[in-house]
# Entry
Amino acid sequence: MIPDRNPAPEEFEGLSLSDQPPPPAEQYGLYGGEPVPPPPPISSDGVVALDVMGRFRKAAKTLEPGELIKDGYFSLMDSVASIEIMDPKMDSGCLGPGETLEEGYDVTRPLRAEQVIGIIDQLLCHEMAWHLGYPLSQTLFTNVYIEGILMPMPNTIEQADFVRDQPGHDPMLAVLRAYCLGLLKACYHVNERIKGEHYYEEEDFVTNTYHRSLLDRIDEAAIRQVITNARTSLRSGICTDTLLADALDSRLRLREEFLNAIQLSEDRNNSADSIKAPWIELEQILETINRSHALGTSVPEAFSTKIQRKLASTMPPRPIVQLRFEDTYGHFKHMFADGREVTDVLAYTDSESLLNFVLHFQAKRPQPLVYIRTLLQSYLFKDMIILGRLSIRHIMDDDLSTLVLPASPLLDPTNDAFESAPHSPQFQLANRMELFRQRAAQSYLDVFRAICQNRCRIRRTLCHSIQDWENVQLDAEEVDQVLALETNEAAMSWPRPTSPPSHSLSLSSWAYLYKLKLMQWIVQLGFELDIYAPDELAGMYWYLSLLTRTRSQHVQRIQAFAEKNVREVLRTRKLSEEEEMQFDRAANYWRGSLLDAAVTCQLADALSSIYIVLGRLGLVTPPPRPYSTDEMRYNVRMKPFGVIGLPELPTYETFKEAALQPKLSVAQLLDAATSALEGAKRGFKAMERFDEDESFARGVTYERFKADLAGSHKSAIAAGLTIMMLRKALGEKVSRNTETGEGGGKELGLKVEIKAPSQRYHECWVVPGLVKVPSKDSGASTGN
Amino acid sequence: MAESGRLEKLPAELRYIQYEHGLESQYLPAIRALISKDLSEPYSIYVYRYFLYQWGHLCFMALDPTDSSLVGVIICKLETHASHSPMTLRGYIAMLAVSSAYRGHGVATALVKRAIDAMALRDADEIVLETEESNIPAMRLYERLGFLRSKKLHRYYLNGSSAYRLVLQLKPPEIERVVEPALGEAEVSEVVVAAS
Ligand SMILES: CC(C)(COP(=O)(O)OP(=O)(O)OC[C@H]1O[C@@H](n2cnc3c(N)ncnc32)[C@H](O)[C@@H]1OP(=O)(O)O)[C@@H](O)C(=O)NCCC(=O)NCCS
# Structure
């Protein structure tokens, strides 16, 4: 079905492109006395107003019903955005017979403490619904008190009240007002933070405020004072029931602490501990709120869809989003914990650990909310200063030295000091390296930005990034060749003594390594997002294994040349302490990277073999697909990789051979899978012994690294069980030496179960399960 | 999905006809009603006219022969897709629905096949569509015909649910190859992947 809203533009998936601003809210709807931008002057010099209604009607009469008059720019999205005037389901301004526009709810009526709690808890639900991606119009803006505060637009703190022009205030209403003010100010900050970073409007979040101002002009200190006063009044006995008074107080404290959390996180240079403190506080307050939720009495009349009619929008009336309090609580719990955890990114050690932090943080389930994800982006990139204190050059040089150039004169910061000698070789080197950094910086930072997006977008964005990295690689190669000449680098034959001699090509190697990693992530995200059909899995795991094998080989090449270059340095002098450290770090990186490539490759190989067997046995059967051929689908599936020159996409014939393995028998395939699994399990065991330095994962990331590894390890064990069941069933049926297994699965009385991503040990490892069934209805099923 | 009111057997051979503008007053209200039934938000009449007025020949209806009432409908468009190089002629299945009593008898499959045939005849390079990730019947139907999921779209619909983009390639794509980087010249060796 076509989308029922304007989706974020899909064609611009590159991150470096500036964001599309949200479409301007149309000048439609009732403004309820709100000062709106004035209409264009109807009469001015040289403009003669003319009533065209007569002509319009006449022209319209010549049309057949259903004829469409449009210019070439009228798109599908324009038609989706159009509404039918006077249709009550679409026209929010349309009143039914006897219906009035006014609410009929008296915001000045006194409220009991229980009711205030009920309203606040409902507001909490709406606030969370907004965080989850629903618009304000269906959430917070359905509340009559919020509407009363925002309309007409207040200019002073006194005006920011749903009870205006009435001296004195019911103290319970004052508590509710204080809560609302703190809430709206927080929403203002959240909205601005999100708008300032990369996110997808409507898909991740709706920033539209429908011409309402979220108290941006009201002084925050004044709002805090209102909250303080309300808390004081609670303590001075306006509510005699201390349980109720405490419940209200904890809700006001939540508003205070949330503002604190926002304020501290705006300045990354605060100590990580002080940034963390309010998030920890919020986690505790949330528990108190959850415990006292039952004290509240809900006031459903205080929420109404009618308010939507007053918003500056052409949107049809839409129902109020109903998020349950238990779910709201769960989401806030995650949000506050994530807010606390994300500050750990500020503790920088090296670029690879930074990348791993972001990768693992974003892989959390549920994925952190968009506000937290934009907070992470702001910690990382705000003002082009990384983590508030590092230059882009600093982390890029860290990265180059870790991956490809440890202890290299190319990265020696003292080269810069030769500025005064522009012809010196050192200055030439510094200059070339700087040009390269400028060329590659955007692509490099975009990797971090990409993984801060929602999971679907990460995959889509990376499909474009790999083309970008291909260009970086080609440009880097030119720099590499010049550098080899200027540094008199000796060529080396690799991988064999008989191979043609080559230079290290370090910078292009670095780019190629990123490209390979990104390609691997794209394939893995495909498993995670359930993109592949069951009968595609054998081929896709084979391709994953090919990519990791290529990466492994590339890392070996990098290592060989980097070691050779260091040996050359060692011929003339000893390494400095800093250089020793760099070399050790790089050695850790290579080792970890090789091991990771090896286990991924082997587990992928094993799963590929298992799926081939399941295909042979008829346990995974492809649908008939009368309109498609295997080759056409290969083209579709591999489209993102088809444009990449290196690694070159295997031809369809190669792929087919690999995904079917026609020369191997079922028994041979199962043997191959078993030995690959043994290798993978050995590798996982070795990686489980990694410390923080070896894994480039620190603190909470180290825990995640271990958990991730454990998930993969368990997947390997589960794959072993599947093989065992297959062997057993086959052994019972046919003698192992003669069978080909072809289509024999039906008689095995087995059925394949493919688990939904969230049910797997690891989302990227789709281990097929086997269940016994009466032999009639065996076949593949995608259990969800 | 309400299975209860389903017909055991189709009443008689259904009639499949191509939409044309002259049928608007007779069938547009029924088309809208049928499509809207499974939607949380109605599309305005302009959305239907946008498709039907421009690509009526890519809209097919299944009719009950006894009273010519509408049983199922498919609505599509076919346009060049400019943001791609090389340019592709892309078909798009916008809407598909079968009246719940008539489901499970291949009506939707027959409609989709007619639409694919019509678009292939007009030289379409590919056909795409989106469907809610939880709409298993729709996904099975398309995948059975040869569509592949190409990407997942986060929170694609107003109700917050995500979608899959499905693609059916009808002609082989032209791929422009880029220059081969020097690292590619290294010969492929046996790679040692055995864990330490
Ligand atoms: C999705 C939808 C269009 C399917 O309509 P349908 O007519 O039931 O579809 P089909 O009959 O072609 O296919 C459904 C099943 O009937 C089976 N079938 C196909 N031909 C058949 C035949 N001649 N006789 C009996 N069964 C048949 C199919 O194998 C399929 O089985 P499956 O459930 O194992 O996949 C329908 O459910 C619908 O209108 N849903 C609401 C709107 C919607 O979701 N639209 C799609 C959005 S893109």
